[in-house]
Amino acid sequence: MRTLCASTLIGEFFVIGFAGLVAMKQDGLTAGTVWVVCGVGMALCVLLCGMLGRPGALAVGWALQIVLVVSGYWVGTMYFLGVVFAALWWASIHFGRKIDAARAGHSAQVA
């Protein structure tokens, strides 16, 4: 599960960075504000990659997905991309758990 979730988070890292570039062109948003918000989001993606085995990491990941969808208020495309990445996050967790269970079952049969 960690590999699939980490892959999704790295994809989000780049999407947040590119969304920051788009948001800089919006009226009413300063470059400093945009890059502080995007920097925090990007750092959170990288930190979550290393913390996926810890309790609460998946909940923080879900919170990040919600923030991505809400960021569509400032960058319209992020409504769509936020929903896409939320679906990828769900799929990473769902199918990752199935893969982990299958691996555990296979390891038990071999041992």
What's the structural blueprint in terms of helices and strands?
Elements: H1 2-23, H2 31-50, H3 57-70, H4 77-110
Helix pairs in contact: 1-2, 1-4, 2-3, 3-4
Defining traits:
single chain, 111 residues, mainly alpha, 81% helix
How is this structure best described in words?
This protein has 111 residues and is mainly α. It has one domain (2-110). The chain contains four helices and no strands. α3 (57-70) runs antiparallel to α4 (77-110). The longest helix is centred in the last third of the chain and has 34 residues, at 77-110. It is 81% helix and 0% strand. It is elongated.
Sum this structure up briefly.
This protein has one domain. Helix content is 81%, strand content 0%.
Overall helicity: over 70%
Shape: elongated
**Secondary-structure content class:** mainly alpha
Estimated share of beta-strand residues: under 5%
Describe the main β-sheet briefly: none
The CA-CA distance between the termini, in Å, is: 22 Å
| Helical run tally | 4
* Number of structural domains: 1
Global mean pLDDT: 95
Order of helices and strands: HHHH
Unreliable residue stretches:
none
C-alpha-based Rg, rounded: 16 Å
Tell me the number of strands. Answer: 0
